[in-house]
TrEMBL record:
<feature type="signal peptide">
    <location>
        <begin position="1"/>
        <end position="18"/>
    </location>
</feature>
<feature type="domain" description="Ig-like">
    <location>
        <begin position="124"/>
        <end position="231"/>
    </location>
</feature>
<keyword id="KW-0472">Membrane</keyword>
<dbReference type="InterPro" id="IPR013106">
    <property type="entry name" value="Ig_V-set"/>
</dbReference>
<keyword id="KW-0812">Transmembrane</keyword>
<dbReference type="Pfam" id="PF13927">
    <property type="entry name" value="Ig_3"/>
</dbReference>
<dbReference type="Pfam" id="PF07686">
    <property type="entry name" value="V-set"/>
</dbReference>
<protein>
    <submittedName>
        <fullName>Uncharacterized LOC101883331</fullName>
    </submittedName>
</protein>
<dbReference type="InterPro" id="IPR013783">
    <property type="entry name" value="Ig-like_fold"/>
</dbReference>
<dbReference type="InterPro" id="IPR007110">
    <property type="entry name" value="Ig-like_dom"/>
</dbReference>
<keyword id="KW-1133">Transmembrane helix</keyword>
<keyword id="KW-0732">Signal</keyword>
<feature type="transmembrane region" description="Helical">
    <location>
        <begin position="243"/>
        <end position="264"/>
    </location>
</feature>
<dbReference type="InterPro" id="IPR036179">
    <property type="entry name" value="Ig-like_dom_sf"/>
</dbReference>
<dbReference type="InterPro" id="IPR003599">
    <property type="entry name" value="Ig_sub"/>
</dbReference>
Amino acid sequence: MILVVLFQLYGLLLGVFGDDTVPVMEGDSLTLHTNTKTKQQEKIKWFFDHTRIAQINGDLSFICADVQCEDGDERFRNRLKLDHQTGSLTITNTTFTDEGDYQLQIIGSSSNSVKIFNIIVHDASTADSEEKKSKSVKEGESVTLNCQIKNPNDVKWYFNDLVIAEITGDQSKTCRGVRCEDGDERFRDRLKLDHQNGSLTIINTKSTDAGVYKLQINSSSFSIQRNHSISIISEESFSVTDWTLYLCVAIGILVAIVLMLIGLKGWRRRRSNHRQNYV
């Protein structure tokens, strides 16, 4: 721990220490970028809570991630991926226990650098209805899939692995629906893209809109991958369900009335027999 603190102070003196705050939702896949390529004489180390969770040497003589590292953390078992070309770290299926500071150390033959990423994990299960990843909507209604990134420069929305909407720093390349290079005709004139936060709205939803929508958020420091699921409830399914429910209730009431009448008839018969015997 003391060595880590000293190294951070050294980074401050060199003027290469910086930090980024990265908000993600539970279940997202997050990649933290090094913005470099591994070199022969270079070492890239990742720390979380002062514990080394990943490392790669430029000559690939040593590579480890999560519990593979000598002092690895069990919480990341099978959820860390290390890019052998850049040393970038990917955390899959993020959870609350992943929240905190991640320290990147790049140790070279002539210079060293330290960078801090502050990860904030939001609870997807208690999110507002507008922020939930799974939504059900009646056919014909509108639904909004949230991105919640202010003034995004690189956002892509995918459906069936096809780009259906995109925001880039170059306004000429911003697109939605059939205007995208591999756009889908099913969304013609039914997509709205919010350029302030990257959210995607589908209007006049159809049964063919049901499925998983993938969101890709890119920046120079990090990338986020998020899945949104939409289920479309058709009006037909509503009417069938309603009629089935009404029919079951009606049958139940009818059976109850029949049983009451049979019971009442039996009671009267027993009462009549009792009076005759008494006489």
